[in-house]
Amino acid sequence: xxxxxxxxxxxxxxxxxxxxxxxxxxxxxxxxxxxxxxxxxxxxxxxxxxxxxxxxxxxxxxxxx
Length: 65
Description:
By secondary structure, this protein is an alpha+beta fold. The chain has a single domain (2-62), classed as Alpha-Beta Plaits, CATH 3.30.70.1530. Helix content is 35%, strand content 31%. It is built from 2 helices and 3 strands, in the order E-H-E-E-H. It has helices at 11-23, 53-62, and strands at 2-9, 29-33, 43-49. Strands 1-3-2 form a 3-stranded antiparallel beta sheet. It is globular, with a radius of gyration of 11 Å. The mean pLDDT is 91.
């Protein structure tokens, strides 16, 4: 089961968080929320497998997001 661990404003921020998690070996999915905007300012849910939630939270905190 996939669990939301972070909500990012904009695709650029979502990609930064995804890259940080993937570098630490965490599986990640991005899910846009709402309608796709032309300028990429959508919010994105960052999801990880339920078993990796605690590790993902620790990584997110460590990198300052």
